[in-house]
Amino acid sequence: MAERALNLLREYLLAVQFFTRLPITGPLAQWVGYSPELLRASAAHFPGVGWLVGIAACASFAVVSLALPNGLFTPMAAAVGCTIATVLMTGGFHEDGLADVADGLGGSAERERALEIMKDSRVGAYGAMALVLVLLAKVSLLAVLATHSPAAVLAALLAGHVLSRFWPLLVVRLLPHVGDTATSKSKPLADSIERKTLAIALAWCVIPLVLAAFVQGVWFVLGGAIAGGLVLLALLRWFKRRLQGFTGDCLGATQQLGEIAFYLGAAISLAPT
Fold first, then answer.
1. Most buried by CB count within 10 Å: which residue of 29, 33, 163, 268?
2. Quick check: pTM over 0.85?
């Protein structure tokens, strides 16, 4: 039992190391270790990484809101502040994937050329437009939620960051990996996503979703989850049609769009009837 708990902790810390800039170095990093098998197992804890990012986002939003005078644009400023905090915490890992996907799929209708563009580290016109629009959507929706109530935006931030990290696992489960197997960081994750992995990942989502439902109501959570699910279905269809599978960049794009979809669905649920 104790050994299993330690293995779960190692898997979780590797996921944190892989998807954030949090300093897991020195003796701790040596204890965690690395292997393709360990990285594959760490996929179960991606939503758990969302706990850390979501808590940081909530704290940043609260600090900025309390530091500024109560005004019309205070929610917008707080939304910008918490978005900056999450980008710094993750190193813009998922945003980079989103930009690459936009450049590749927007830049060419040919599959091979699209995959080639996605490997280019430079950001093109489609990627720049996608980043701007996604960040604007994220900030504006958070401001809308904050205008309703502080509890609404904090619940959405935590639940949205956690649940949006579950959707990419379904992409891995349902589509084949089509990236460069020799260089892709996501390749070990693509070899196998078992049902047990999905079950553990879903378990990470339970508490934030239940908490959001307790604070804002069941429709708040259902709205966000349904919106995220619809975005997932659209992306699965798009990736399958254009790429015949997914790359690591597709997983980052799925997380970003799933996060925004949760905010949108949650905000719609709060609209007066």
1. 163
2. yes
